[in-house]
Write a structure and sequence with these properties.
About 5% of the residues are buried. The protein is flat, with a radius of gyration of 14 Å. It is an alpha/beta fold. It is built from two helices and five strands, in the order αβββαββ. α1 (about 1-15) packs across α2 (about 45-55). The strands form two sheets. The protein has a three-stranded parallel beta sheet with strand order 4-1-5, with no helix packed on it. Strands 2-3 form a two-stranded antiparallel sheet. The chain has helices at about 1-15, 45-55; strands at about 20-25, 35, 40-45, 60-65, 75-80. The protein has one domain (about 1-80).
């Protein structure tokens, strides 16, 4: 998990984000989940990104639709889930 935080922190620092300029587009199948290896709790694909941003104290907006105007955001995380034929 620390590697995820370190990677996310490096990304955040390298693009110099403002506190309000992050949008997480959670465009995943709502039934998609996997077990967090540290807690054995089912989580979605946004889990590591949200935890990393929370850990480093960044404010963000999360939604299931992509806003029409993206100019208010400095960074957009697009979460598309995983491929499943079933």
């Amino acid at each position: 998990m620390f590697k995820n935080y370190l990677l996310l922190f490096t990304m955040v620092i390298s693009i110099n984000l403002s506190a309000q300029g992050i949008y997480i587009w959670h465009n995943e199948n709502p039934s998609f989940a996997f077990l967090d290896p540290e807690t054995d709790i089912p989580v979605g694909g946004d889990y590591a990104i949200i935890n990393g941003l929370d850990y480093w104290g960044y404010d963000f907006t999360i939604g299931s639709t992509l806003p029409a105007d993206l100019t208010t955001f400095d960074a957009i995380f697009i979460l598309l889930g995983s491929f499943c034929e079933g």
